[in-house]
Design a protein that fits this description.
Elements lengths: L5 H13 L4 E5 L8 E8 L8 E2 L5 E15 L5 E8 L6 E4 L4 E17 L8 E2 L2
Antiparallel strand pairs: 1-2, 2-7, 3-8, 4-5, 4-6, 4-7
């Protein structure tokens, strides 16, 4: 069993602080053969998450701690929408539809749980160039 507790979250933040990318993810799958992707992602302010999309998968984003903004873009890279996630404000997450260009801005140290359809590597992830 995997437990998600204060100790695990603290460890993820420590690893994110050591990473030049200012983030660290933790695979929640119990086997690489699982038919979906589940991970925790510890994000620190200053991390840069490029605009990207998953053509073959919805992405569920659940905020566990902190404050982030999910940003949605059109095909030309123009910002369309911002959704502020903050557990204190009862904004706990969102579902980004398959094929939607998006990114995340980190306002304070945060942990999100990401879930995508299909096995790892099958979501068709693309980065906007």
């Amino acid at each position: 069993m995997i437990t998600i507790d204060k100790k695990l979250i603290s460890n993820l933040f420590d690893k994110a602080a050591e990473n030049p990318r200012r983030r660290h993810n933790y695979d929640l799958r119990t086997s690489p053969d699982e038919g979906c992707q589940r991970m925790l992602n510890a994000l620190l302010p200053g991390t840069e998450v490029p605009i990207h999309r998953h053509p073959n998968s919805n992405e569920s984003v659940i905020l566990i701690s902190g404050k982030v903004v999910e940003v949605i873009y059109d095909d030309a890279g123009n910002e369309l929408e911002r959704f502020h996630m903050d557990t204190a404000a009862s904004n706990f997450g969102c579902i980004v539809p398959a094929g939607t260009w998006h990114s995340v801005e980190v306002l304070e140290p945060s942990v999100i749980m990401e879930v995508k359809d299909g096995r790892y590597g099958e979501d068709g992830s693309e980065i906007m160039s």
